[in-house]
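worker-3 :: picked Ribosome biogenesis protein NOP53
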Amino acid sequence: MKTKKRGGRRLKKDWRRKIDVTDVDTYLEGKRLQERIGDSFSQKKDEELFHIDTSGKKQKSKKKSLNAPLKCLSILQSTSAIPPLAKRSVKKYKKNNKKDDDFDKNIKPLKKKGGIVKKKEAKELNKILKAKVKTLELKENSTKDLFDKDLWTSYREPGQRKDKLIKNVIKWLPSEVLNHNAKILPKLSNKKMSHPSQTTCKAEDMKCPHPGLSYNPTIEDHVSLLANIAEKETELIKHEAHMNRVTRNLFKQVSKEKNEQMIIEELTEGLPGFTDDTVKEVNEDTSEFKAINPPTTRDNQKTIKKRKIQRRLRNEERQRMNAKIEKKKVSDLYRLRYIREELDELENTTNKKKLKRLQKRQLNNISTRRLGTNKFTESSDTFALPKDLKGTLRETEPQGNIFKDCFESLQKRNILSVGKKQLKIHKKKVQAFMHPAFKVTPDMLTKYSV
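worker-3 :: tokens ->
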């Protein structure tokens, strides 16, 4: 059994040290909590804890009314505290309610066959005539159409739908204003962002396989499949032959020995000791000066007879040339019908070229665009020879790959970029460094061959 500790009770400090005061602390903590939170729920009434909600659903916040004034016009409004000046009081004159003012003196009263028209009938007729006269005057004076609507006061008329509003506004609002006020009128701006890499071409998703690829095809389908593949192969062979003809066959094929000999000759040209024996030696008398056209002497001088002969020959040649030109002019006149045929041929060729260009443009819209560095190339069609065709599914060998076809269709429609096969994994070489504070022993150096 534990013995109670006894202490002095003379001073207050001794009392606090030895006496247990936990019940007092718990009571005080409960009071403080009650002050903070409030009374307990058991003491409160139901009316204080609960209330009946009779307000109903909250009304949705209305959008900005279109009739509200524009923010850009707020600068024009006055912000001064001084009230505006009062309008001048205009003196109003009372109208003379005379019976004679209803009539227009210029308009004469109508007459019936039986006698004069009565006053009541004349008043009505007079009003109709006045209205007609006013409309005629307006037509004569007005050269332009009348615009009664004020576009700045309100966007739409009362009872007008939003679709009609948009059509009416777009007629006179420019594109800059529409994009600026897109927050207030979001449906007016039909602007859409597009990225060149995201634009897919108009190529088909997945074509149905040829009926000749089935494990048990008909003879006609199998023959048509083989004919299509043969056409593609012939086109490839023709293209390769054309490229060889244009590149390799243009240059002469020289053996290696002859090529080396030609290179040596080019490099050693003009050097002493490498001259050929076939070259003729130059004459020793090269120091003397010799003119290209030596001077004439009396012995070499042309006679008058020679000069006359030269002049006559020159004139005859000139006459011959003129006769040829005249003859060509006559032949060109007879050649007009052939010229027309040539022009028609030129027109046909130009039209054919135009059609080819249009077809190319249409194909460019359908064909794939290069997203990456590599170009898209369609894989060759799978086929089976008549020997390999079997009657049952068990004996047939699997051909093609559905997953590969789907992957190629994504590349064809510009959804994925074309890549290359990575045969090797190119890892970066890690360069090792030794810390200068690290103690190196000769055994370590021999172990790691440093």
